[in-house]
């Protein structure tokens, strides 16, 4: 994608399997992420790239429109593209806010 988000994910070296292995290596710890979220410029393109490059997915993409969303005491319409997929034991969420405000994308 144009925003380079996927290249940042790739160069970070993050893999769901490594995260689980690290968390499980301490016999006292059973904590590992069950969901990660990336804010991207193009949800569909990033989902396709994640599937092709990392084997993540399948992804379900959709547009979520809320006509009267509340954020920090204000009310307005919010339009967000969302992609949900799987990377090993971790759910991957991709989002792009088109209109309105969102705590995750703020």
- Helix percent reads 25-40%
The largest beta-sheet arranges its strands as 1-4-3-2
- What's the number of helices? 3
How far do the termini sit from each other? 20 Å
Unreliable spans? 7-14
Number of strands: 4
Structure overview:
28% of the residues lie in helices and 39% in strands. It has helices spanning 5-12, 16-25, 43-54, and strands spanning 35-39, 60-71, 74-87, 90-99. A 4-stranded mixed beta sheet has the order 1-4-3-2, covered by helices on one side. A hairpin with a 2-residue loop joins strand 3 and strand 4 (90-99). The relative contact order is 0.22.
List keywords for this structure.
single chain, 4-stranded mixed beta sheet, 106 residues, alpha+beta, 28% helix
What would you say about this model in short?
This protein is of the alpha+beta class. The chain has helices at 5-12, 16-25, 43-54, and strands spanning 35-39, 60-71, 74-87, 90-99.
Strands, helices and their partners?
Blueprint: H1 5-12, H2 16-25, E1 35-39, H3 43-54, E2 60-71, E3 74-87, E4 90-99
Parallel strand pairs: 1-4
Antiparallel strand pairs: 2-3, 3-4
């Amino acid at each position: 994608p144009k925003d380079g988000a996927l290249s940042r994910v790739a160069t970070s070296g993050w893999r769901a399997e490594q995260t689980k292995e690290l968390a499980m290596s301490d016999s006292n710890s059973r904590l590992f992420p069950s969901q990660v979220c990336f804010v991207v410029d193009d949800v569909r393109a990033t989902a396709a790239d994640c599937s092709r490059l990392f084997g993540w997915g399948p992804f379900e993409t959709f547009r979520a429109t809320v006509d009267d969303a509340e954020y920090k005491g204000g009310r307005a319409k919010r339009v967000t593209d969302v992609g949900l997929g799987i990377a090993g034991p971790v759910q991957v969420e991709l989002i792009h806010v088109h209109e309105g405000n969102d705590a995750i994308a703020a």
